[in-house]
């Protein structure tokens, strides 16, 4: 399509329009390419974040396992400590009873000794 304008110059509308269409398509392709690069970069960052998060979860999982193990050991130790403390209370109570009994026996022996002494002294005087 060749047309003559005012200055008798040929104007190629079809070629000019085709060139503009090609330039527009090229810009669109370049924009999509840039968007794809940006998307790829975002995906790589997301992958790195996911990997870091997985490492943190693994590390914290081990810490939680250690804490759980420590809690279980502490529970066992507290149970044994309570049992031992109960036994110690029983032994202390038994020891206190034995001391009281020994004190009463000594007191009775002293009383008997005093009575015997008084009886012997009274019988010697008479």
TrEMBL record:
**Biological processes, Gene Ontology terms:** intracellular protein transport; vesicle docking; vesicle fusion
Residue ranges of the T-SNARE coiled-coil homology domain?
26-88
Q: Which Gene3D superfamilies match?
A: 1.20.5.110
Q: Which domain of life is it from?
A: Eukaryota
**Under the GO molecular function aspect, what terms does this record hold?**
SNAP receptor activity; SNARE binding
Instruction: Show the stretches that span the lipid bilayer.
Output: 100-122
Instruction: Return the Pfam families for the record.
Output: SNARE (PF05739)
Q: Which species is the source of this protein?
A: Rotaria sordida
Protein name stated in the entry = t-SNARE coiled-coil homology domain-containing protein
Cellular component GO terms held in the UniProt record: endomembrane system; SNARE complex
Listed A to Z, the keywords are: Membrane, Transmembrane, Transmembrane helix
In terms of InterPro entries, this protein maps to: Syntaxin, T_SNARE_dom
């Amino acid at each position: 399509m060749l047309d003559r304008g005012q200055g008798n110059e040929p104007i190629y509308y079809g070629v000019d329009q085709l060139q503009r269409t090609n330039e527009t398509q090229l810009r669109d392709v370049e924009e999509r390419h840039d968007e794809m690069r940006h998307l790829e970069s975002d995906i790589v960052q997301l992958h790195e974040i996911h990997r870091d998060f997985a490492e943190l979860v693994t590390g914290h999982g081990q810490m939680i396992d250690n804490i759980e193990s420590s809690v279980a050991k502490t529970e066992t130790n507290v149970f044994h400590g309570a049992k031992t403390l109960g036994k110690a209370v029983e032994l202390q109570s038994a020891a206190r009873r034995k001391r009281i009994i020994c004190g009463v026996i000594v007191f009775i022996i002293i009383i008997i000794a005093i009575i015997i002494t008084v009886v012997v002294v009274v019988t010697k005087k008479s």
